[in-house]
Structure formats: structure tokens, C-alpha cells
UniProtKB/TrEMBL annotation:
Residues 1-22 are annotated as: Disordered. This is Phosphate transport system permease protein. GO terms for biological process: phosphate ion transport. InterPro entries: MetI-like, MetI-like_sf, Phosphate_PstC, Phosphate_Transport_Permease. The chain crosses the membrane at residues 28-53, 81-107, 119-143, 174-192, 291-313. Part of the binding-protein-dependent transport system for phosphate; probably responsible for the translocation of the substrate across the membrane. It comes from the Bacteria. One of its GO terms (cellular component) is plasma membrane. Its main location: membrane. Pfam families: BPD_transp_1. Keywords: Cell membrane, Membrane, Phosphate transport, Transmembrane, Transmembrane helix, Transport. Belongs to the binding-protein-dependent transport system permease family. CysTW subfamily.
């Protein structure tokens, strides 16, 4: 009888584990996980609905729909802001990516452990600095020290449209804002690129070195191809941060509403986020609706940028 009972115990345990009834803890955890994921989508949808409804007054009152000469054209109002936002962010990305990739390679493949660990912590700490601190640093300390460089570039490379124009002090222009944005997105791109480079298969690195490749040749033929998608996605995430930056741009760049390519001229450019921060306190009615419409445009741009970054990450090589 005891033999029969012992042989039936595993079957009984199996029935309890795989039966139709789930444990209460598993059910609660599953519900919380699904609910937490849905909250993200609900919050995103709520923001999109809010921006769309609140900007409807500006859309309905725009010149494109009413045909009135007194109405404000949304294209004329939003276009220069989009241009300034994207222009500053792209310039910041061009400056930040080469430096970030170099730092990431140094930490992951050149520096010793005693140096790479504190340097990595320092990069992560730089990402936690508030943007208003970067704005103060850029406006008070950095801008005066960049003036000689701007004058030199304008004098010797003024035939290039980017460096043309007449720089005037204080040079709170698009170039200064782009430099500050580059410093702000540098730790984001560096941290992601560093982690991607560290995931490179060790056997492939050792095989390249065993075949006689130098360290740089190994990095060029193994590490960089492996981490290419990660670097691109990190750059896109940095671009998304630069597009939405507010306080640093507001404190460093003098506002203007033109499509100028002259990055040294003051009062030519403005970003969407900085314009909203500067104008929202005094705006009401249709003026506030226009600001919210620009926020909707920025929301769409950053959403598309992050979606592209996510798609690139999902297609990258798996370690």
C-alpha cells in the first residue's frame, strides 16, 4: 500500500503544478505586468489626444483653412521653429558622435580596468547633470571662450555658408547652442556604445589578433561592424534628447525666426521646446493653441526618431 502511495505522489504534484488552477501570486504578478505595460500606451495616447484637441483652435484659425489675410499661417509660424530645432540637433549630433565613439572604444578596449571603471562612472554621472546647469555653464563660461574660434572660422572660412554672416558678441547663437547640446548628449551615446562594444564576441576579437591584426585593425574589422547598429541607435537616442532640450537652448541661444544657415549670427534661430518655455507664461487663447500645436509637431518628430532607433536596435546583431 505504501508503495502505491509513493508512486502516486509525483503524479499528484504534477497535477497541482500543471492543473487549470494558477497560483494567486502568478496571477497577480501577470496582471500587474500587463497593467504596467498598458499604462505606457495609455499615457502616450493621452498626451497625443491632449495635444491634438488643444491645438485644434490654432489649426482651424490658421490662414491655410480660413483664407484670411489676418490669420497666422501655421507653416510660417512652425516652419522656422522646426528648422532651428532640427538644425541645432543635427549639428550637435555631428560633433558628439565621433567623440562619444572614441571614448567608448577607449573605455572598452584600451583603458585598464582601474581607469575604465571610474571613467565609466564619470560618463554616467555627466548624464545626470540637470540641463539648467549646462545652460548656465554654456551661457556664462563657454560662450565667451568660443568667440575667438567663431571669429577665426568666420574670417578664414567665411566663404562656406555655415560660417558666413557677421558674428556679434555675446555670441549666443546656434553654434553655441549646438556645442552645449553636443556635451549633453555625449554621455548617452557613449554609455550605449560602450555597452554594445563590450558585447563583441571575445572569440572573434582573439581570432583577429591571432591572425596578426593590430588592436586598431581588430577594432575596425570586428568591433565596429558588430556595434554599428548599436552606435546608430545610440545616436538616434541622442538626437531625440537634443530635439527636446529646453532650458539649455533657452539660456544659450538668442531667439529668431528665420531659415538662415549662418550659425554664427545672433537672433536667427529658435527651437520648438525653447520657444514654448519662453512664450507659454504670457500666451492665452489661440496663441497658446499655436504653442501646443508646435508641441504636437515636436512630439511626432521625437516619436518617429525613437521608433527608428528601436527598429535599428531590433535588427542589430545578437550576441
Amino acid at each position: 500500500m505504501s508503495t502505491i502511495d509513493a508512486s502516486n505522489k509525483p503524479a499528484a504534484r504534477k497535477t497541482v503544478a500543471s492543473g487549470s488552477g494558477r497560483r494567486a501570486g502568478d496571477t497577480i504578478f501577470s496582471a500587474l505586468s500587463v497593467g504596467s505595460g498598458l499604462i505606457i500606451f495609455l499615457a502616450l495616447a493621452a498626451v497625443a489626444v491632449f495635444l491634438s484637441l488643444q491645438s485644434r483652435e490654432a489649426i482651424e484659425g490658421s490662414r491655410e483653412l480660413t483664407g484670411s489675410a489676418d490669420a497666422v499661417s501655421l507653416l510660417e509660424y512652425t516652419g522656422p521653429l522646426i528648422f532651428g530645432t532640427v538644425f541645432a540637433a543635427v549639428l550637435a549630433l555631428l560633433m558628439a558622435v565621433p567623440v562619444a565613439v572614441g571614448i567608448a572604444l577607449f573605455i572598452s578596449h584600451y583603458a585598464s580596468r582601474k581607469l575604465s571603471t571610474p571613467l565609466g562612472y564619470l560618463i554616467d554621472l555627466l548624464a545626470a547633470v540637470p540641463s539648467v546647469v549646462f545652460g548656465l555653464w554654456g551661457g556664462v563660461w563657454l560662450v565667451p571662450r568660443l568667440e575667438p574660434l567663431y571669429l577665426f572660422l568666420n574670417k578664414h572660412l567665411g566663404f562656406i555658408p555655415l560660417f558666413a554672416g557677421e558674428p556679434t558678441a555675446p555670441m549666443k547663437n546656434l553654434a553655441s547652442a549646438s556645442v552645449v547640446l553636443a556635451v549633453m548628449i555625449l554621455p548617452i551615446i557613449t554609455a550605449v556604445s560602450r555597452e554594445v562594444f563590450l558585447q563583441t564576441p571575445r572569440l572573434q576579437e582573439e581570432a583577429a589578433l591571432a591572425l596578426g591584426a593590430t588592436r586598431w585593425e581588430m577594432i575596425k574589422s570586428v568591433v565596429l561592424p558588430f556595434g554599428k547598429s548599436g552606435v546608430i541607435s545610440a545616436s538616434m537616442l541622442g538626437l531625440g534628447r537634443a530635439l527636446g532640450e529646453t532650458m539649455a537652448v533657452l539660456m544659450v541661444m538668442s531667439p529668431g525666426f528665420t531659415y538662415s544657415l549662418h550659425i554664427f549670427e545672433v537672433g536667427r534661430h529658435q527651437s520648438i521646446a525653447a520657444n514654448i518655455a519662453a512664450q507659454s507664461a504670457e500666451s492665452t487663447g489661440i496663441d497658446m493653441s499655436r504653442l501646443i500645436f508646435t508641441g504636437l509637431v515636436l512630439f511626432v518628430i521625437t516619436f518617429v526618431i525613437n521608433a527608428i532607433a528601436r527598429a535599428i536596435v531590433s535588427r542589430g546583431p545578437k550576441s
